[in-house]
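Checklist before submission:
- one chain only
- standard amino acids only
- sequence pasted in full

Submission:
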Amino acid sequence: MKPVLIIRTGRAPDAIRARHGDFPHWFRLGTRLSHRQLRIVDVATGDPLPAPQEVAGAIITGSAAMVTERAAWSERTAGWIRDAMDIELPLFGVCYGHQLMAQALGGRVDYLPGGREIGTHPIELLQAGTHDLLGAMLPASFRAHTTHEQSVLEVPPGSAILARSARDPHQLLRHGPRAISTQFHPEFNAEVMRAYIRRKHADMHREGCDPLHAFQAVGATPVARRLLRLFARHHGWTSAAEAG
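Returned file contents:
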């Protein structure tokens, strides 16, 4: 059986990683995939990517890096994304992965107008989302964890906008029959979200945000998390029982 690839574009901060684990662990829990089903490739440290034909699909993680920096490893990964899209490989991009997919496919990424979005926020399903195979399984509104400074400002040609937040109109995108991406973090749990707010406390104060309000507003996001399981089930990575 071909493995599911986790394309690691960065790492959680040391203090968060020490207490809560790191991106691959969170995605494994979110998708309910086993260790033996996964192959982790750390592109940010130079790991080579396998040919898209060699894997069952890929999850592209978040990162503290900025897509607009166009680092060599990031540009190589963007080329791999285009190759994977050519064969309709199942792809799920999150945060940096979301932005990188959009840029790779012809969209535009830059800093989110008004500054960073961080905390647990309502996500509104749009009309296109109600007609999407996975989007139709989501309620009209649900909560999700976010932490980002950059965003997709212009979606790629042919991509559909499935959901938005009050600050970011491109929270959930459909790029093709087997490729979606989220600006929000379906892999985060509430404790991880609180840890990120604690870490960004000073930055939030400097930018005129209220970190205490954001911290107190953090809550469970079962619908956002379920999106990972639905995607895994739909593409045959898990059984219906595992994704329930």
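Reviewer check: The chain has one domain: 4-188+222-243.
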